[in-house]
Amino acid sequence: MKIFKKLVFLFSLSLANPVFAQEEEPKKIGELFDVLDNVLQYIFPLAGLICVVFVIIGGYMWMSAAGDPSRVKSAQSTLTWAIIGLIVVLLAVAIIEVIVKFIS
Length: 104
Fold this sequence. Notes:
Distance between the termini: 58 Å
Number of domains: 1
Strand content: under 5%
Shape: elongated
Radius of gyration: 25 Å
């Protein structure tokens, strides 16, 4: 029975599919920018939100450290990397906007 299923599966793969027979039109640069814009429209706000959440977590860690040097250092590290991440996200948005405006 397993061999029969494999043969049916292989045979179904070999059938002509009209979707594969169609010729694709080359993508236009404007369409690619639209797709890129739609993807980045969701990614950058999410990345910014994650950075802000980590700034809040780092602040909470610092306040709850109660003077313990290792916990304060951990909180400082969290805040530092969260702020660096936020700066990177903002720079990426600015660079992509400049590139898109320059090309289009």
